[in-house]
């Protein structure tokens, strides 16, 4: 699959400081995009790459599972109330052996989509460990959303929707079940994040704060789909 590129600290990832790390030849440096970094996290196999590809290209690659190596990224521009927000979405490797690579990117991320697989109890049980890591490495005010992916495979469900919702409530983060295969709630997850980040950036003292939970619930009601926030 064509990738927009592996992300290197010197190669202009958002927040990347070019005095850090390796120096690349001038021709190899992409322009630094004015993009908002969003990171996909979760165990290997929960569907992070598919989730990103569904959002970016509206496609789902079934069949062979090719684990991500290190970290990869794609850009997508979304419109929030007529204002363009460029998301740079980092697809991280869920495998333990790449953890030290992904840790290096946490602090630059403005939003984190944390996925588990509703057919894998272990991926759900590991969410607490992921949240501990997030609190250790990410910015204090990073936007976090919990997503129970593969909701299309209901016959193999091992994690109840209520359990996902309850864990999200415990940590005070919004929650949705999603499917990278059917596209269910994929765009909504990114739009809610983009809206939250845009509102934060433009927050005026007298204007009430944007409520991401309310936004997701309203959008779900409008589409007649399944809100669990
Ligand atoms: N049915 C179904 N299968 C999915 C869904 N999302 C991903 N898959 C499948 O799950 C497997 C793993 O998907 P990936 O997107 O590669 O998983 P990942 O989280 O990126 O894995 P790492 O790169 O190792 O971290 C693949 O075989 C996908 O086809 C989904 O929403 N529904």
From TrEMBL:
It is an enzyme of class 3 (hydrolase). The keyword GTP-binding applies. GO terms for biological process: protein transport. Its cofactor is Mg(2+). Coiled coil: none annotated. Its EC number is 3.6.5.2. It catalyses: GTP + H2O = GDP + phosphate + H(+). SUPFAM superfamilies: P-loop containing nucleoside triphosphate hydrolases. InterPro entries: P-loop_NTPase, Small_GTP-bd, Small_GTPase. One of its GO terms (molecular function) is GTP binding. Pfam families: Ras (PF00071). PROSITE patterns: RAB, RAS, RHO. Keywords: GTP-binding, Hydrolase, Lipoprotein, Magnesium, Metal-binding, Nucleotide-binding, Prenylation, Protein transport, Transport. Belongs to the small GTPase superfamily. Rab family. PANTHER family: PTHR47978. This is small monomeric GTPase. The gene is RAB37.
């Amino acid at each position: 699959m064509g990738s927009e590129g592996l992300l290197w600290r010197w190669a202009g990832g958002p927040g990347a400081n070019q005095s850090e790390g390796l120096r690349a030849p001038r021709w190899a440096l992409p322009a630094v995009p004015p993009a908002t970094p969003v990171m996909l996290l979760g165990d290997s196999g929960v569907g992070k790459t598919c989730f990103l590809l569904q959002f970016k290209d509206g496609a789902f690659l079934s069949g062979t599972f090719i684990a991500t190596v290190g970290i990869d990224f794609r850009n997508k521009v979304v419109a929030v109330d007529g204002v363009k927000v460029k998301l740079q979405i980092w697809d991280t490797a869920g495998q333990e052996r790449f953890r030290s690579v992904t840790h290096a990117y946490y602090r630059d991320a403005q939003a984190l989509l944390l996925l588990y697989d509703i057919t894998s109890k272990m991926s759900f049980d590991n969410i607490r460990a992921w949240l501990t890591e997030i609190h250790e490495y990410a910015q204090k005010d990073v936007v976090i959303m919990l997503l129970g992916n593969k909701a299309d495979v209901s016959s193999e469900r091992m994690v109840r929707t209520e359990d996902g919702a309850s864990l999200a409530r415990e940590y005070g983060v919004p929650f949705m079940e999603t499917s990278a295969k059917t596209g269910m709630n994929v765009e909504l997850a990114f739009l809610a994040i983009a809206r939250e980040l845009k509102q934060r950036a433009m927050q005026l003292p007298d204007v009430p704060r944007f409520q991401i939970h309310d936004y997701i619930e309203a959008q779900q009601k409008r589409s007649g789909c399944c809100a669990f926030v």
